[in-house]
Protein backbone atom coordinates (compact mmCIF):
# COMPACT_ATOMS: atom_id res chain seq x y z
CA UNK A 1 0.00 0.00 0.00
CA UNK A 2 1.34 3.43 -0.84
CA UNK A 3 2.28 5.84 1.88
CA UNK A 4 -0.53 8.15 0.78
CA UNK A 5 -3.18 5.49 1.22
CA UNK A 6 -1.81 4.56 4.61
CA UNK A 7 -2.01 8.16 5.68
CA UNK A 8 -5.70 8.44 4.89
CA UNK A 9 -6.54 5.36 6.92
CA UNK A 10 -4.56 6.56 9.94
CA UNK A 11 -6.28 9.91 9.95
CA UNK A 12 -9.69 8.32 9.77
CA UNK A 13 -8.89 5.93 12.56
CA UNK A 14 -7.59 8.67 14.82
CA UNK A 15 -10.57 10.84 14.03
CA UNK A 16 -13.07 8.17 14.92
CA UNK A 17 -11.52 7.45 18.28
CA UNK A 18 -10.95 11.05 19.25
CA UNK A 19 -14.49 11.64 20.45
CA UNK A 20 -14.75 8.53 22.59
CA UNK A 21 -11.27 9.02 24.03
CA UNK A 22 -12.04 12.62 24.90
CA UNK A 23 -15.35 11.69 26.46
CA UNK A 24 -13.65 8.99 28.49
CA UNK A 25 -11.01 11.44 29.68
CA UNK A 26 -13.72 13.89 30.74
CA UNK A 27 -15.60 11.27 32.72
CA UNK A 28 -12.40 10.12 34.42
CA UNK A 29 -11.54 13.68 35.32
CA UNK A 30 -14.97 14.39 36.79
CA UNK A 31 -14.81 11.21 38.85
CA UNK A 32 -11.45 12.34 40.18
CA UNK A 33 -12.78 15.80 40.97
CA UNK A 34 -15.62 14.48 43.07
CA UNK A 35 -13.72 11.71 44.74
CA UNK A 36 -11.73 14.22 46.69
CA UNK A 37 -14.85 15.40 48.42
CA UNK A 38 -15.72 12.78 51.04
CA UNK A 39 -19.27 13.95 51.48
CA UNK A 40 -20.26 13.31 47.91
CA UNK A 41 -18.54 10.02 47.34
CA UNK A 42 -21.73 8.06 47.64
CA UNK A 43 -23.67 10.39 45.45
CA UNK A 44 -21.14 10.37 42.64
CA UNK A 45 -23.50 8.87 40.12
CA UNK A 46 -26.17 11.38 40.92
CA UNK A 47 -23.76 14.28 40.65
CA UNK A 48 -22.24 13.16 37.40
CA UNK A 49 -25.76 12.49 36.15
CA UNK A 50 -26.77 16.05 36.89
CA UNK A 51 -23.76 17.36 35.02
CA UNK A 52 -23.91 15.26 31.91
CA UNK A 53 -27.55 15.71 31.11
CA UNK A 54 -27.34 19.51 30.79
CA UNK A 55 -24.01 19.31 28.95
CA UNK A 56 -25.50 16.83 26.55
CA UNK A 57 -28.48 19.11 26.17
CA UNK A 58 -26.19 22.01 25.18
CA UNK A 59 -24.48 19.80 22.63
CA UNK A 60 -27.83 18.71 21.20
CA UNK A 61 -29.01 22.29 20.81
CA UNK A 62 -26.01 23.02 18.59
CA UNK A 63 -25.82 19.65 16.94
CA UNK A 64 -29.29 19.98 15.40
CA UNK A 65 -28.16 23.01 13.35
CA UNK A 66 -25.18 21.08 12.07
CA UNK A 67 -27.44 18.13 11.30
CA UNK A 68 -30.10 20.12 9.46
CA UNK A 69 -27.46 21.90 7.41
CA UNK A 70 -25.75 18.70 6.35
CA UNK A 71 -28.54 16.19 6.00
CA UNK A 72 -31.22 17.97 3.95
CA UNK A 73 -34.06 16.23 5.74
CA UNK A 74 -37.36 18.07 5.69
CA UNK A 75 -39.77 18.62 8.54
CA UNK A 76 -41.01 15.40 10.15
CA UNK A 77 -44.77 15.03 10.14
CA UNK A 78 -45.07 12.59 12.97
CA UNK A 79 -43.09 10.73 15.58
CA UNK A 80 -42.58 7.71 13.32
CA UNK A 81 -40.81 9.85 10.74
CA UNK A 82 -38.76 11.36 13.53
CA UNK A 83 -37.72 7.93 14.69
CA UNK A 84 -36.58 7.00 11.19
CA UNK A 85 -34.56 10.16 10.81
CA UNK A 86 -32.91 9.72 14.21
CA UNK A 87 -31.94 6.11 13.60
CA UNK A 88 -31.14 6.05 9.90
CA UNK A 89 -29.73 9.52 9.31
CA UNK A 90 -28.56 11.12 12.54
CA UNK A 91 -27.00 8.14 14.28
CA UNK A 92 -25.41 7.09 11.00
CA UNK A 93 -23.98 10.53 10.38
CA UNK A 94 -22.57 11.16 13.83
CA UNK A 95 -21.76 7.75 15.22
CA UNK A 96 -21.55 5.61 12.10
CA UNK A 97 -24.17 3.15 13.33
CA UNK A 98 -27.85 2.54 12.58
CA UNK A 99 -29.87 1.41 15.58
CA UNK A 100 -33.04 -0.55 14.93
CA UNK A 101 -36.41 0.86 15.90
CA UNK A 102 -38.71 -1.39 17.90
CA UNK A 103 -41.37 -1.60 20.61
CA UNK A 104 -43.72 1.09 19.43
CA UNK A 105 -46.40 1.94 21.97
CA UNK A 106 -50.00 1.51 20.74
CA UNK A 107 -50.46 5.28 20.79
CA UNK A 108 -47.32 5.75 18.68
CA UNK A 109 -45.73 8.06 21.22
CA UNK A 110 -42.94 5.81 22.45
CA UNK A 111 -40.35 3.66 20.74
CA UNK A 112 -37.01 2.02 21.45
CA UNK A 113 -33.70 2.35 19.68
CA UNK A 114 -31.69 -0.85 19.91
CA UNK A 115 -27.91 -0.71 19.59
CA UNK A 116 -25.61 -3.66 19.79
CA UNK A 117 -23.16 -1.75 21.93
CA UNK A 118 -23.08 1.46 23.84
CA UNK A 119 -21.66 3.75 21.14
CA UNK A 120 -19.75 5.97 23.49
CA UNK A 121 -17.61 3.37 25.14
CA UNK A 122 -15.76 1.41 22.52
CA UNK A 123 -12.33 2.28 23.75
CA UNK A 124 -12.93 3.42 27.25
CA UNK A 125 -12.51 1.64 30.52
CA UNK A 126 -15.20 2.40 33.03
CA UNK A 127 -13.76 3.86 36.21
CA UNK A 128 -14.13 1.37 39.06
CA UNK A 129 -17.34 1.47 41.05
CA UNK A 130 -19.21 3.80 38.77
CA UNK A 131 -22.20 2.70 36.81
CA UNK A 132 -22.87 3.17 33.16
CA UNK A 133 -25.31 5.93 34.07
CA UNK A 134 -22.39 8.23 33.55
CA UNK A 135 -22.12 7.40 29.88
CA UNK A 136 -25.73 7.24 28.94
CA UNK A 137 -26.78 10.65 30.12
CA UNK A 138 -24.75 12.61 27.63
CA UNK A 139 -26.49 10.88 24.75
CA UNK A 140 -29.95 11.30 26.30
CA UNK A 141 -29.22 14.98 26.82
CA UNK A 142 -28.15 15.36 23.20
CA UNK A 143 -31.36 13.76 21.93
CA UNK A 144 -33.53 15.89 24.17
CA UNK A 145 -31.75 19.15 23.31
CA UNK A 146 -31.74 18.50 19.58
CA UNK A 147 -35.43 17.59 19.41
CA UNK A 148 -36.44 20.54 21.54
CA UNK A 149 -34.97 22.81 18.88
CA UNK A 150 -37.37 21.28 16.37
CA UNK A 151 -40.31 21.85 18.66
CA UNK A 152 -40.54 18.43 20.26
CA UNK A 153 -40.38 17.83 23.99
CA UNK A 154 -39.20 14.25 24.50
CA UNK A 155 -37.82 12.04 27.20
CA UNK A 156 -34.90 9.77 26.40
CA UNK A 157 -33.50 7.15 28.74
CA UNK A 158 -31.40 4.04 28.70
CA UNK A 159 -33.43 1.01 29.70
CA UNK A 160 -30.81 -1.59 28.84
CA UNK A 161 -27.05 -1.20 28.61
CA UNK A 162 -24.37 -3.61 27.45
CA UNK A 163 -22.07 -1.96 29.98
CA UNK A 164 -24.33 -3.27 32.72
CA UNK A 165 -24.30 -6.73 31.23
CA UNK A 166 -27.50 -6.53 29.20
CA UNK A 167 -27.53 -8.19 25.79
CA UNK A 168 -28.16 -4.94 23.94
CA UNK A 169 -28.27 -1.22 24.61
CA UNK A 170 -31.82 0.11 24.45
CA UNK A 171 -32.79 3.78 24.47
CA UNK A 172 -36.45 4.47 25.13
CA UNK A 173 -37.78 7.62 23.46
CA UNK A 174 -41.06 9.13 24.63
CA UNK A 175 -42.91 11.99 22.98
CA UNK A 176 -44.20 14.38 25.62
CA UNK A 177 -45.67 17.25 23.64
CA UNK A 178 -45.20 19.61 20.80
CA UNK A 179 -43.53 22.87 21.81
CA UNK A 180 -45.38 25.85 20.45
CA UNK A 181 -43.36 28.93 19.72
CA UNK A 182 -43.87 31.34 22.57
CA UNK A 183 -44.23 34.94 21.65
CA UNK A 184 -42.37 37.33 23.92
CA UNK A 185 -44.63 39.03 26.44
CA UNK A 186 -46.45 41.99 25.00
CA UNK A 187 -46.45 40.79 21.43
CA UNK A 188 -49.89 39.28 20.93
CA UNK B 1 -16.98 5.99 13.97
CA UNK B 2 -17.77 9.34 15.49
CA UNK B 3 -18.19 12.40 13.32
CA UNK B 4 -15.67 15.19 13.77
CA UNK B 5 -18.32 17.77 14.71
CA UNK B 6 -19.03 15.80 17.90
CA UNK B 7 -15.52 16.43 19.18
CA UNK B 8 -15.82 20.17 18.67
CA UNK B 9 -19.15 20.35 20.51
CA UNK B 10 -17.87 18.14 23.30
CA UNK B 11 -14.74 20.27 23.65
CA UNK B 12 -16.82 23.42 24.19
CA UNK B 13 -18.88 21.73 26.92
CA UNK B 14 -15.77 20.23 28.46
CA UNK B 15 -14.12 23.62 28.85
CA UNK B 16 -17.29 25.05 30.38
CA UNK B 17 -17.70 22.09 32.75
CA UNK B 18 -14.13 22.08 34.01
CA UNK B 19 -14.04 25.84 34.31
CA UNK B 20 -17.09 25.68 36.55
CA UNK B 21 -15.41 23.05 38.72
CA UNK B 22 -11.94 24.32 39.10
CA UNK B 23 -11.93 28.04 38.90
CA UNK B 24 -11.66 30.10 42.02
CA UNK B 25 -11.37 33.88 42.14
CA UNK B 26 -7.61 33.87 42.63
CA UNK B 27 -5.09 33.57 39.81
CA UNK B 28 -4.15 30.09 41.04
CA UNK B 29 -7.59 28.81 40.13
CA UNK B 30 -7.30 29.69 36.50
CA UNK B 31 -3.94 28.01 36.16
CA UNK B 32 -5.29 24.84 37.71
CA UNK B 33 -8.13 24.64 35.23
CA UNK B 34 -5.78 25.13 32.31
CA UNK B 35 -3.46 22.41 33.57
CA UNK B 36 -6.39 20.04 34.09
CA UNK B 37 -7.46 20.58 30.49
CA UNK B 38 -3.88 20.20 29.30
CA UNK B 39 -3.53 16.97 31.26
CA UNK B 40 -6.65 15.52 29.66
CA UNK B 41 -5.40 16.48 26.21
CA UNK B 42 -2.11 14.79 27.05
CA UNK B 43 -3.78 11.49 27.90
CA UNK B 44 -5.93 11.59 24.77
CA UNK B 45 -2.87 12.45 22.65
CA UNK B 46 -0.99 9.53 24.16
CA UNK B 47 -3.86 7.17 23.47
CA UNK B 48 -4.14 8.37 19.87
CA UNK B 49 -0.42 7.88 19.39
CA UNK B 50 -0.56 4.39 20.85
CA UNK B 51 -3.11 3.34 18.27
CA UNK B 52 -0.92 4.11 15.31
CA UNK B 53 0.51 1.06 13.55
CA UNK B 54 4.23 0.56 14.08
CA UNK B 55 5.19 1.09 10.42
CA UNK B 56 3.95 4.65 10.47
CA UNK B 57 6.14 5.47 13.42
CA UNK B 58 9.40 4.89 11.60
CA UNK B 59 10.29 8.56 11.44
CA UNK B 60 13.81 9.30 10.38
CA UNK B 61 14.08 12.71 11.96
CA UNK B 62 12.47 14.91 14.57
CA UNK B 63 11.27 17.21 11.80
CA UNK B 64 9.34 14.31 10.25
CA UNK B 65 7.47 13.87 13.51
CA UNK B 66 6.50 17.52 13.58
CA UNK B 67 5.36 17.32 9.96
CA UNK B 68 3.24 14.33 10.92
CA UNK B 69 1.57 16.41 13.63
CA UNK B 70 0.96 19.26 11.21
CA UNK B 71 -0.52 17.04 8.53
CA UNK B 72 -1.91 13.74 9.74
CA UNK B 73 -2.78 14.58 13.33
CA UNK B 74 -4.23 17.97 12.51
CA UNK B 75 -6.33 16.56 9.65
CA UNK B 76 -7.60 13.77 11.89
CA UNK B 77 -8.61 16.15 14.65
CA UNK B 78 -9.50 19.37 12.83
CA UNK B 79 -10.05 18.31 9.21
CA UNK B 80 -7.37 20.69 8.00
CA UNK B 81 -3.60 20.90 7.95
CA UNK B 82 -1.56 23.28 10.01
CA UNK B 83 -0.93 26.41 7.97
CA UNK B 84 2.75 26.80 8.70
CA UNK B 85 5.62 25.12 10.51
CA UNK B 86 8.79 26.96 11.41
CA UNK B 87 11.83 25.85 13.34
CA UNK B 88 15.14 27.15 14.52
CA UNK B 89 16.59 23.69 13.93
CA UNK B 90 17.57 23.64 17.57
CA UNK B 91 14.53 21.95 19.02
CA UNK B 92 11.99 24.75 18.90
CA UNK B 93 9.06 24.61 16.49
CA UNK B 94 6.26 27.06 15.90
CA UNK B 95 3.09 25.64 14.37
CA UNK B 96 0.64 28.22 13.13
CA UNK B 97 -3.04 27.72 12.38
CA UNK B 98 -4.64 30.75 10.73
CA UNK B 99 -8.17 29.61 11.40
CA UNK B 100 -8.11 27.31 14.39
CA UNK B 101 -11.47 25.54 14.46
CA UNK B 102 -11.88 25.69 18.24
CA UNK B 103 -11.54 29.48 18.13
CA UNK B 104 -13.51 30.20 14.99
CA UNK B 105 -16.93 30.13 16.56
CA UNK B 106 -15.86 32.57 19.22
CA UNK B 107 -15.04 35.73 17.37
CA UNK B 108 -12.42 37.29 15.23
CA UNK B 109 -9.90 39.92 16.14
CA UNK B 110 -9.27 41.00 19.68
CA UNK B 111 -12.60 40.36 21.28
CA UNK B 112 -12.51 37.41 23.71
CA UNK B 113 -8.73 37.27 23.58
CA UNK B 114 -8.74 36.62 27.33
CA UNK B 115 -10.91 33.55 26.85
CA UNK B 116 -8.70 31.99 24.21
CA UNK B 117 -6.27 30.11 26.52
CA UNK B 118 -9.11 27.90 27.80
CA UNK B 119 -9.76 26.74 24.27
CA UNK B 120 -6.13 25.96 23.55
CA UNK B 121 -5.10 24.05 26.67
CA UNK B 122 -6.54 20.69 25.66
CA UNK B 123 -4.94 20.89 22.20
CA UNK B 124 -1.53 21.76 23.68
CA UNK B 125 -1.80 18.64 25.78
CA UNK B 126 -2.89 16.63 22.75
CA UNK B 127 0.26 17.63 20.87
CA UNK B 128 2.45 16.93 23.90
CA UNK B 129 0.79 13.53 24.43
CA UNK B 130 1.17 12.38 20.84
CA UNK B 131 4.81 13.49 20.85
CA UNK B 132 5.32 11.58 24.06
CA UNK B 133 4.11 8.34 22.52
CA UNK B 134 6.38 8.96 19.56
CA UNK B 135 9.30 9.11 21.97
CA UNK B 136 9.67 12.87 22.22
CA UNK B 137 9.45 14.84 25.44
CA UNK B 138 8.29 18.40 24.97
CA UNK B 139 6.73 21.52 26.36
CA UNK B 140 3.84 22.90 24.34
CA UNK B 141 2.36 26.34 24.76
CA UNK B 142 -0.03 28.34 22.64
CA UNK B 143 -0.47 32.01 21.96
CA UNK B 144 -3.11 34.03 20.21
CA UNK B 145 -2.45 37.52 18.93
CA UNK B 146 -5.72 37.79 17.10
CA UNK B 147 -8.56 35.25 16.82
CA UNK B 148 -8.81 32.82 15.11
CA UNK B 149 -5.10 32.63 14.35
CA UNK B 150 -3.00 30.86 16.91
CA UNK B 151 0.52 29.58 17.29
CA UNK B 152 1.58 26.41 19.09
CA UNK B 153 5.15 26.46 20.33
CA UNK B 154 6.78 23.08 20.78
CA UNK B 155 10.07 22.99 22.64
CA UNK B 156 11.78 19.62 22.63
CA UNK B 157 13.17 18.65 26.03
CA UNK B 158 16.49 16.92 25.93
CA UNK B 159 16.63 14.25 28.63
General description of the model:
The complex is a heterodimer of chains A (188) and B (159). By secondary structure, chain A is α+β, with helices and mostly antiparallel strands. Chain A has a single domain, classed as Trafficking protein particle complex subunit 3 (Muramoyl-pentapeptide Carboxypeptidase, domain 2, 2-Layer Sandwich). Chain A is built from four helices and four strands, in the order H-H-H-E-E-H-E-E. Chain A has helices at residues 3-35, 44-71, 79-95, 133-148; strands spanning 100-102, 110-115, 152-160, 169-178. In chain A, strands 1-2-4-3 form a four-stranded antiparallel β-sheet. In chain A, helix 2 (44-71) crosses helix 4 (133-148). The longest helix of chain A is centred in the N-terminal third of the chain and has 33 residues, at 3-35. Chain A is globular, with a radius of gyration of 19 Å. The model of chain A has no long low-confidence stretch (mean pLDDT 80). With 159 residues, chain B is of the alpha+beta class. Helices cover 50% and strands 17% of the residues of chain B. Chain B contains five helices and four strands. Chain B has helices spanning 4-22, 27-50, 62-78, 101-104, 118-133, and strands at 84-87, 92-97, 138-146, 149-156. Chain B has a four-stranded antiparallel β-sheet with strand order 1-2-4-3, covered by helices on one side. In chain B, helix 1 (4-22) runs antiparallel to helix 2 and helix 2 packs parallel to helix 5. The N and C termini of chain B lie far apart (38 Å). The model of chain B has no long low-confidence stretch (mean pLDDT 87). The chains are: A alpha+beta (188), B alpha+beta (159). Chain A binds chain B through residues 6-7, 10-23, 25-26, 29-30, 33, 51, 55, 58-59, 62-63, 66, 93-96, 119, 123, and chain B through 1-7, 9-14, 16-18, 21-22, 36, 40, 43-44, 47-48, 51-53, 55-56, 71-73, 75-77. Chain B: Part of the multisubunit transport protein particle (TRAPP) complex. Heterodimer with TRAPPC3. The heterodimer TRAPPC3-TRAPPC6A interacts with TRAPPC2L. Interacts with TRAPPC2L.
